[in-house]
Amino acid sequence: MDPFIGTAATDLPPARGLAATWWWPKPQVGNTHPGATSPLGMVSACAYSGAYPTGYGRYAKNTEGVPEEMFERLQASGFTHFQQSGTGAIRKYYNYVRVTPMVQPLDDLNESWPLHDEVAEAGYYAATLDTGIRCELTVGTKVAVHRYTFPEHSSARVVIDLSCGGLGIDLGRTVPVRAQAESMGLGRAQGTVVMEGVPLSVYLEVDSPGWRQMLWYDRRLIHGGTRLDFDSIRQTTLRPFGMLFMGPARAGQTVEVRLGFSLRGCEQARANLERECGQSSSAFDTVRLRTRARWGDHLGRVQVEGGTPARRTVFGTALYHALIKPCFGDDESPFWPTPGPFAFDVCTMWDIYKTQLPLLSAIVPERANDLLESLIRVCEEEGNFPIGYRMARGADRFFRQASALVHTALADAHALGRTALDWNWALVHMVGDLRRMYGEDFFEHGVVHPITHTLDLAYAHHCTAKVARALNDRRLADDLERRSSQWTNAFDPGTGLLRDSEFYEGGKWNYSFRLLHDMAARIDLAGGDKEFIDKLDRFFGYGARPVRQPGRRPDPAEMAAGYALNRFEGLNNEPDMEAPWAYHYAGRPDRTAEVVHAALTWQFGTGPGGLPGNDDSGGLSSWYVWASLGLFPVAGQSLFLVNAPAFERAVLRTGDGEFVVETSGHRETPIGVDGPEGHPPPQYVQSATLDGKPLHATHLDAVTVHRGGVLHLRLGPEPSAWGRELRPPSLSEPPAT
After folding, report:
1. Cβ-count burial 391-425 (b if 16+ within 10 Å, e if not)
2. Residues in a beta bridge with 639
3. Boundaries of each Glycosyl hydrolase family domain copy (predicted)?
4. Quick one: average pLDDT of 14-24?
5. Is 719 exposed, middle or buried (0-12, 13-18, 19+ CB in 10 A)?
6. 121-135: pLDDT as tens digits
7. Residue 717 in contact with residue 683, Cβ under 8 Å?
8. For the chain, what percent of residues have pLDDT higher than 90?
9. Exposure winner among 44, 83, 235, 298, fewest CB in 10 A?
10. Range name among 137-141, 359-363, 677-681 with the lowest pLDDT average
11. Helix/strand/coil for 341
């Protein structure tokens, strides 16, 4: 596992074959960071330069092509907490409570120093500043622990800046509106800042015997002061403020900084710190080992055998990235007083609902259930299910992306029967949410623009109908199912594609091959299997010439020409993530095998530039995990599609069981960029068995996968007849057996 994968601009071998025809319009950078994280934990910690979008690294904000650099080198002005993972287009993003070890005067705060000798592991990050200070970070679920090793100096210091927030780009700063800081003596301090409507509290302990501690404001020390209060802060009145610990340091002396965080006040922040760090003067190694063990448990829930070392590293890192977000702060909601799960950094459902949420449901079902409970509570408190939910007041800042996506996860959870939710209450919110925003127009007219929201809402009606029918509300289920059939209003029968409309980060071709609840009717609408496959072949570039990817600052004409290709965007963008599996519904799983194989081979690699685009809170990495296993979840349908896997054997630990995918037959070389000339041939399923019984269909019920079993796939170098007759289920056709 390598946390540096995805932290730099895309740097992959030039693609060959099918993958060379795909065109990438969005930023060619993973937007991940190498900082310390805990599985689905509340806190992260990383070096801070102010760069877009994580606060780590060198890049400026960009929306297409190769990212531009803000800095010539990796650098940091300190170390912050709460970073996003892999998203883009968010100008302000956390990076609160900056801790800066210094051997310079306080006037030099905000200077950035080059970083050397970086190390990143699960739950651990370290680097040496140009000043000679070695900096190590680790985190627990609600705490962070820093350890600084100083060179000899007469006046070393550790500075905590509570006013820091956001990014060092235009309009990227997050300004606290209220704050308080208190120095409590004996190496202890606490404070609260209200950022974007959320009160973030920190309680900290600094193990620095003999050092002085003071408050500071506007880079001036407040001798003898014990408390700062700011009742109203504005952009024009903000001056930096915080705490400082200073004293002489001998060469090699370490200073440990322990920080407990809470969204419910300093007392709870202190309790969080004591629970995870104990009462001793040193907790770094304890917290690091505990988090490392927690990562080992989570990453061990999916195991693979075979493949190249590079491919296993990419896979392990993808699984790691898939388990960083959302953030869970149990009993930490600042918006309602009751205990229970509180999930934030659901950023955004548009990115994660197809791939990451089904992965969480499979391997960390208890957390997947907590997420749904939290989202239902958000809907109850704020009036709607969020499309994106940050650590900020207000649930729905991403409504333009999509509509009613939580319904897919709720439908899947109900079908699995393992979630102890109040389903009657959940159904109330599912139904109510269908009428918000674009949903009102859909309810009245059966179609809405942007046209993709018509597909979202029709599909959400289908998902809600399944829950209503299972709860014996037949009248409601019938009405919802009738409205779900209005997905046809989104399509132009003359072209078999979506109607002309506005499209969020894509075009009508990118959105036209979504896996709907009635794919049989969808294929008929396109003119039948042959016409549907012909359109897919064109979309994926069969027979097309290689294309040139956008460079730095691509001009509008270049981007327009690229969009005019109407081509698969090669995992650089979310809308067409599921499109390779559309072939399954037309009886051509061999085509799915070719497209997925090309993506796994050419779109991912080792090193900082190993991702083709934004990782998007683990949505892209989750795609990679599923594709490598030879499975793809159809969100909302409690269904998995089967394809040739990338590894000889894989074990998915699902709750109390294990689902095993094993292969036999012809395999010349492992999939991976370090195979012979970097492009081994694709493999095709020749036949399949499930628990020793023949499997002729290309799909599995999700209950089967979650229950556990053995899927054996015999592979070969040429397409076969397997899966051509028995199609995955569609609403207008009975399921194949």
Report:
1. bbeebbbbbbbbbbbbbbbbbbbbbbeebeeebee
2. 634, 701
3. 268-716
4. 95
5. middle
6. 999 999 999 999 999
7. yes
8. 89
9. 235
10. 677-681
11. coil
Q: For residue 119, give the nearest of 48, 46, 39, 50 by alpha carbon.
A: 46
- Alpha-carbon span 165 to 312, nearest angstrom: 36
Distance (Å, rounded) from C-alpha 139 to C-alpha 260? 10
Question: Comparing C-alpha atoms, which of 379, 381, 382 is closest to residue 407?
Answer: 379
Tokens standing for residue 730: 């569609």
* DSSP-derived 3-state class of residue 693: strand
Taking residues 405-414, what's their average pLDDT?
Answer: 97
Position 593 scores a pLDDT of 98
Q: Mean of the pLDDT values across residues 483-508?
A: 95
H helices within 564-647, ranges in order?
Answer: 589-602, 619-629
Spatial separation of the C-alpha atoms in residues 627 and 601, rounded to whole Å: 11
State CA 236 to chain mean position distance: 35
Task: Provide the CA 145 distance to its chain's centre, in angstroms.
Answer: 24
Q: Judge whether residue 678 has pLDDT over 60.
A: no
| Amino acid present at 652 | L
pLDDT tens, residue by residue, 185-220: 999 999 999 999 999 999 999 999 889 999 999 999
Task: Using the predicted structure, report yes or no on whether residue 92 has a pLDDT greater than 90.
Answer: no
Eight-state DSSP code of residue 721? S
Question: Whose structure tokens read 């779900």?
Answer: 484
DSSP output for 502-515: --TTS-HHHHTT--
**Per-residue pLDDT band at 673 (split at 50, 70, 90):** very low
- Give the Cα separation of 435 and 392 in Å (integer): 24
CA distances from residue 536 to 165, 227, 295, 511 in whole angstroms, order as listed: 45, 65, 39, 12
CA distance 84 to 309: 28
Q: Is the pLDDT of residue 671 over 80?
A: no
Encode pLDDT of 217-226 as tens digits: 999 999 988 9
Copy the structure tokens of residue 665.
């037959």
Question: pTM of the prediction?
Answer: 0.97
How does DSSP classify residue 565? T
Task: Judge if the upstream peptide bond of residue 339 is cis by omega within 30 degrees of 0.
Answer: no
Using the predicted structure, report yes or no on whether residue 279 has a pLDDT greater than 90: no
**CA 49 – CA 71 distance, rounded (Å):** 9
Stated as kind and residue range, the H or E segment containing 485 is none
Sequence letter at residue 643: N
Angle at 121 between CA 388 and CA 153, to 5 degrees: 105
Strand bridging mode 709-716 / 657-665: parallel
What is the average pLDDT value for the chain, to the nearest integer? 94
**Residue pointed to by tokens 């506005």:** 502
Structure-token match 């229950």, residue found: 707
CA dist 64 and 296 (Å) reads 36
With a CB cutoff of 8 Å and minimum separation 6, the contacts of 728 are 519, 584, 585, 634, 639, 641, 697, 698, 699, 736
